[in-house]
């Protein structure tokens, strides 16, 4: 088992590191640990990539510090993974809430040679909360909570997710971004999330999976894996 990654505030993050080659870093959804990426990691490691996935603080086998569930701290945790493993030219892959962590890491820390591109799957950006300038607002939330996640972490991450507004900072992302989204995603409807996010990102490409739901990593494994491999190869 790899040694845990230590964050700036001393939290130990469990991670798995499979394969050799150009690095691909996976950031899971709210409530889900790194195990959720196993099918993608197997496919990409077999295709010649180094695949890294970690458990968010309070999730899976990482420490449960009871704090640090805001996007700034979570983005710092992702940056710690990149720095301590000395990953360069990485493809960042986020799912659902993880997409916000990817975007915030890029705007807070920059690409700095460590990040070459990003993939947003079932994104919850740019903004979920109903507001005068965001009247559609998303009301349906992910309901399945992974049993290994801390209840405190789930609650605080849910609050962070609901309050986040990435509309301004998305315009500052300067790496190519691939957005993959299910046409029938009821958790994160594409008209409220994927399409507005793609319109904000300077170098975005959006692909809608016809008839697909939120959890593409399980329901559309073959297509998703092929798209990830093709994009990560540049």
Give the distance, in angstroms, between the N- and C-terminal Cα atoms. Answer: 31 Å
| Main beta sheet strand tally, sense and closure | 7 strands, mixed
Quickly count the domains. 1
CATH homology group = Alpha/Beta hydrolase fold, catalytic domain
Mean pLDDT, rounded to whole units? 90
Q: Which band does the percent of strand residues land in?
A: 15-25%
CATH third-tier fold name:
Rossmann fold
Helix and strand succession? EEEEHEHEHEHHEHEHH
What oligomeric state is this? single chain
Going by helix content, strand content and strand pairing, the class is alpha/beta
| Total helical segments | 8
State the CATH architecture.
3-Layer(aba) Sandwich
Total DSSP E strands:
9
Secondary structure layout:
Blueprint: E1 5-6, E2 12-13, E3 15-18, E4 23-27, H1 38-46, E5 50-54, H2 71-84, E6 90-95, H3 97-109, E7 115-121, H4 151-163, H5 167-170, E8 177-182, H6 194-200, E9 204-209, H7 216-219, H8 221-232
Parallel strand pairs: 4-5, 4-6, 6-7, 7-8, 8-9
Antiparallel strand pairs: 1-2, 3-5
Helix pairs in contact: 1-8, 2-3
Give structural notes.
The chain has 234 residues and is of the alpha/beta class. The protein has one domain: Rossmann fold (3-Layer(aba) Sandwich), CATH 3.40.50.1820. It has a seven-stranded mixed β-sheet, with helices on both faces. A two-stranded antiparallel ribbon has the order 1-2. Helix 1 packs across helix 8 and helix 2 packs across helix 3.
């Amino acid at each position: 088992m790899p040694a845990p990654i230590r964050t700036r505030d001393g939290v130990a993050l469990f991670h798995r590191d499979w394969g050799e080659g150009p690095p691909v870093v996976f950031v899971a959804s709210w409530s889900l640990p790194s195990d959720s990426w196993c099918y993608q990691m197997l496919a990409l490691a077999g295709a010649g990539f180094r695949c890294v996935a970690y458990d968010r603080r309070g999730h899976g086998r990482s420490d449960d510090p009871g704090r640090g569930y805001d996007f700034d701290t979570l983005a710092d945790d992702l940056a710690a993974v990149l720095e301590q493993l000395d990953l360069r030219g990485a493809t960042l892959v986020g799912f659902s809430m993880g997409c916000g962590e990817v975007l915030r890491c890029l705007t807070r820390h920059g690409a700095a040679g460590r990040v070459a591109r990003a993939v947003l799957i079932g994104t919850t950006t740019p903004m979920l909360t109903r507001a005068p300038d965001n009247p559609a607002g998303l009301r349906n939330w992910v309901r399945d909570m992974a049993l290994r996640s801390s209840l405190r972490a789930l609650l605080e991450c849910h609050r962070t997710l609901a309050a986040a507004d990435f509309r301004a900072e998305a315009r500052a992302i300067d790496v190519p971004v691939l957005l993959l989204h299910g046409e029938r995603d009821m958790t994160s409807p594409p008209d409220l999330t994927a399409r507005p996010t793609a319109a904000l990102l300077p170098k975005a490409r959006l692909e809608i999976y016809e008839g697909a739901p939120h959890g593409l990593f399980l329901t559309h494994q073959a297509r998703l894996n092929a798209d990830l491999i093709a994009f990560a190869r540049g």
